[in-house]
Amino acid sequence: MKIRIEILSRVLKRHLRIILLAGLGLITTLCLPVLSLEGKVIAAQPANLAQQGRTFYEAGKLDQAIANWQEAAELYATAGNLEGKTESLINTATAQQALGLYPQSCQTVLEAFAVEQFNCLQLQQKAQSIEQNLVANVEQDSQPQQQVKTILKPIIEQPDSLNKATGLLRLGDYLRETGYGHVAESVLNFSLDTAKAVDSPVETTAALLSLGNTARAIAEQNQNRFPPQTVALDVVSNQGGSATAALKPYQPALNYYQQAATVENSDFNGLRAELNHLSLLIDSWEFWQTATTELQNNLDELGITDASFLNQVRTGAVQLQYQLANQLQPQIVALSQQLQPKVSNLPASRIGIFSRINYAQSLIRQGIVDANTAQILAVAAKDARQIKNNSAEAEALGYLGQLYEKQQQYSEAKRLTEQAIQLVPTTDYPEIAYRWQRQLGRILNQENDRPGAIAAYEASFNTIKALRTDLATTPVEPIFREFVSILLKEEPTQAELNKARDVLESLQIVELDNFFRDPCSEVAEEPVIIDQVDQQAAVIYPIILDQRLEVIATIPGQDLRRYYTDISKQEVQRTIKQLRNNAFRDPGVAEQVRSTRGTTEQRGQLQQIETNLQTSLNQDILPLAETIYDWLIRPIEPDLTKHKVKTLVFVLDGSLRNIPMAMLYDREQKTYLIEKDYNVALSSGLQLTNPQPLARQPIKVLAAGVTQGLPELELPPIPKVEEELKVIKTIFKDSEILLNNQFTQASLQQRLQQSDFPVVHLATHGQFSSTSDQTFIVSGDPTGNKLINVKQLDNLLKVGSLRRTKPIELLVLSACNTAEGDNQAVLGLAGVAVRAGARSTLATLWGANDDATSELMGYFYQNLASNTQINKAQALRQAQLTLLQTPDSQYRHPYYWAPFVLVGNWL
Fold first, then answer.
1. Which of 10, 226, 242, 407 is the most exposed place for a label (fewest CB within 10 A)?
2. What is the rounded distance in angstroms from the CA atom of residue 896 to the CA atom of residue 102?
3. How far apart are CA 762 and CA 738, in angstroms?
4. Where would one find the signal peptide in this protein (predicted)?
């Protein structure tokens, strides 16, 4: 039950925690214009429209509210009433954000203030630059506040007013939701200053509330970059193991909420702040309970050899959990009791209803599923019926259904959930309907009604697909996993296997949308038929479920194959993590082997070093690689042989993305997968892959690289980059080189706009993370702005594509690596190519050796140039085999050749 509550809370985070309680329900800020005597007759019609918009907003009919306010704004503009126009447009932006339409809300705010100096895309780009500098500790003495003030000068220099305060609030919310938390914080501080200047307690509290939500989003984003046990280990081993240290990231948010709650005459904003305060305390408790428990359960994985330190960590984890319980639980109980009478006395309004619902949800998450909680939701449903707000009533009934589900009263839970669904047809309320459709599926599954559960989950799945443009920041991944789990339960039919494969493909798309926080990845309208693309390629779809590892395989001309291993999610992740850690840790020894070759002083030690290396390989790496081979390949190997499959395309799930499939090991034949005559490629799903072969006219490469290190990020020099680029120029005569200071954002964009380059090769430091703001490459820009954020790279490649006659066939990132411990980091690898229109990406899963990388890249390009009959996957395989199989090669260890992966189109 704890897991289900935790998953549900994440799924609903945007809807209840951010949207409903971030000031989007600020009815008091939906102000109506004051009519002048001169404009009374002309303004009557827009005033009526504005009032109708407010009525629609209260009733939850947000689309109609938007239409009314937009029409009112046009009429006010015609009448010359600029204040009325501005207010109507800001109200429009508020409703747009309530629908999750953040990009549209930004444009509406800029229109409200007649801003022509920049648009929302340019605002995002400037925000990226500021956030990027903060990540890199560049210009750390400068304040984002001053930079933001310069950017928003057209708004900030306008006279202080309620409109200005609310408009800045909406812009701050937009920037937070699109991933620019620190910039959002600065914008919201300007909103707060403006609200105080016009002496508005309501807007002052709204700004403090949104600042709290933003500080919370920043803390959660930083925290979620790593597994919970890693976060707990850092606090226990590096920060004294105190509860104060553990809760420090949340303190700014708690401070803002507490400030907001103390502002007098703030209407309902103070109550919203207290409700958010309560939900944050519960979030903190749930996270740290999970983190400390996982740390205690997984100590053996940490590779700690010092027994004293290991015992210190074990004891510290127990003590931290105890301290957090003593500190958080009394606060949660006290605040819950303090809020009870306040919530009970709320009026029958949109704000009152959703405040009741939020309070009830916090009680449910505490395990308080009693008659009192049920009564709170029943009153919310009654109030919603009274004001004819179908969406609010559906929310109340849906959560009431969830309460009965927790009590295992499934019949009543089903009845209430079905009522909620009937109130919000997908044509009118898709952003609400999908959640209750999912809940109905979950309940029916508990009742062992598999056909009914499948139908309900399919309805939720279809609603989400239709809503894709509005859900880019909503974590719907758990719904997809639950649906696949039910589809693959028992003995699935071919139709159910096909549906499961479609869901897995869609999951890849959703994860990319969440990575970039907007849904711009192009999706094929019709499913790609693998038989029509490559009759010698099989596509393998693993998915990690709670208690089993499922695999669906597509072989040309054959029915879908399904096989599985009964194993817990934790055991799968433990095996994967150990393999990656061991393969990545051995380079310390491997580097000794490389550096001592030919060195007289250490030549006598060489044999022992090589022996140690082989022992480590045999004991710490190959057994784990064998295990994963048995999970993914062995069950289907006879079919692969029978149907003469030559290429394996993996659509990987979760932490499986962090290990190279090429190094999976067949213990029976004592060979790596790459040695078994299989080309290996990764894909984000065939819906996103443009399966066209590499054009074989003379290949022209745009090759850019940086040999210098970046001390502030502890990135060392990579001197072999220059040699790597020279080799490319030797093989492809028409190529262009940008080295060190020549490689800037501007120069890269200029070259891409001037000429077609089927291959773009970037040999530079970089990091790929599960969040786009932590994903970057390093340029040689002498001005100091060296980091190119993944979104900036995406924009550079896109801008170039507008003037190119041919797409980028291959994007090579030869010195980048994925963030260690980040299960979703490889999304960045796939995302760059997919979003920019490049057909495939060649990159590394970890920071491979400089010399080995240079050699492998030379072999790869030579293979492409010398044999027009091989595709990109074959060229990469042959290059890797050259490092692996050449007699006396110093690069036989998988650390050197395995991390290179081809993502996307393998042809």
1. 407
2. 44
3. 9
4. none
Distance CA 306, CA 313 (A): 11
Given the structure tokens 């480590």, which residue do they identify? 616
| 391 Cβ contact list (under 8 Å, min separation 6) | 60, 423, 424, 429, 432
788, 793, 795, 799: CA torsion to nearest 10: 120
User: Above pLDDT 90, what percent of the chain?
Assistant: 61
Q: What is the pLDDT of residue 789?
A: 78
Q: What are the residue boundaries of the structural domains of the chain, listed by start?
A: 430-516, 532-671, 701-870
Helices within 697-789 (DSSP H only)? 720-731, 745-754
- Write out pLDDT tens, residues 727-747: 999 999 999 999 999 999 999
Question: DSSP secondary structure string, 314-367?
Answer: HHHHHHHHHHHHHHHHHHHHHHHHHHHHHHHT--SSHHHHHHHHHHHHHHHHTT
Q: What is the side-by-side order of every strand in the sheet holding 537-544?
A: 561-566, 548-554, 537-544, 647-650, 679-682, 900-904, 840-844, 810-813, 759-763, 701-705, 736-739
For 118, phi and psi rounded to 5 degrees? -155, 160
**CATH number corresponding to 701-870:** 3.40.50.360
pLDDT of residue 474: 63
Task: Please report where in the chains the tokens 């009654």 appear, as a residue.
Answer: 382
pTM of the model: 0.86
- Assess whether pLDDT exceeds 50 at residue 21: no
Residue 839, classified by CB atoms within 10 Å of its CB into exposed (0-12), middle (13-18) or buried (19+), is buried
Give the pLDDT band (50/70/90) at residue 4.
very low
Q: Is 337 a residue whose pLDDT tops 80?
A: yes
Distance CA 612, CA 590 (A): 10
Contact between 373 and 403 under an 8 Å Cβ cutoff? The reply is: yes
The DSSP bridge pattern shows strands 766-768 and 701-705 to be: unpaired
Task: Report whether pLDDT(441) > 80.
Answer: yes
Surface-to-core class of residue 853, CB atoms within 10 Å of its CB (0-12 exposed, 13-18 middle, 19+ buried): buried
Sign of the C-alpha dihedral computed for residues 195, 200, 206 and 209 taken in this order? positive
- Asked if the model's pLDDT at residue 91 lies above 90, the reply is yes
What angle (nearest 5°) sits at the alpha carbon of residue 688, between those of residues 686 and 692?
Answer: 75
C-alpha to C-alpha distance for 217 and 757, rounded to whole angstroms: 40
pLDDT at 5: 30
In this structure, are residues 897 and 884 in contact, taking their beta carbons and an 8 Å threshold?
A: yes
Going by the DSSP 8-state scheme, the letter that residue 546 receives in this structure is S
CA distance 569 to 112: 50
| Total residues belonging to the chain | 907
Conformation bin of residue 657: beta by default, left when phi > 0, alpha when psi is -120 to 50:
alpha
Question: Cβ atoms within 10 A of the Cβ of 856, count?
Answer: 25
DSSP state, residue 717: P
> In the prediction, which pLDDT does 599 show?
56
**Of 853, 783, 870, which is closest to residue 812 (Cα–Cα)?**
853
- Distance, CA of 721 to CA of 562 (rounded, Å): 44
C-alpha distances (whole Å) from 17 to each of 168, 228, 251, 254, 700 are 20, 21, 17, 14, 51
Select the more confidently predicted residue: 887 or 339: 339
CA distance linking residue 848 with residue 763, whole number of Å: 12
Contact 79, 57 (CB under 8 A): no
d(CA 4, CA 451): 22
- Across the beta sheet with 776-778, the strand order is 787-789, 776-778, 766-768, 816-818
Helix (H, G, I), strand (E, B) or coil at 152: coil
Select the highest-mean-pLDDT range: 261-270, 646-655, 709-718. Answer: 646-655
CATH number of 532-671: 3.30.420
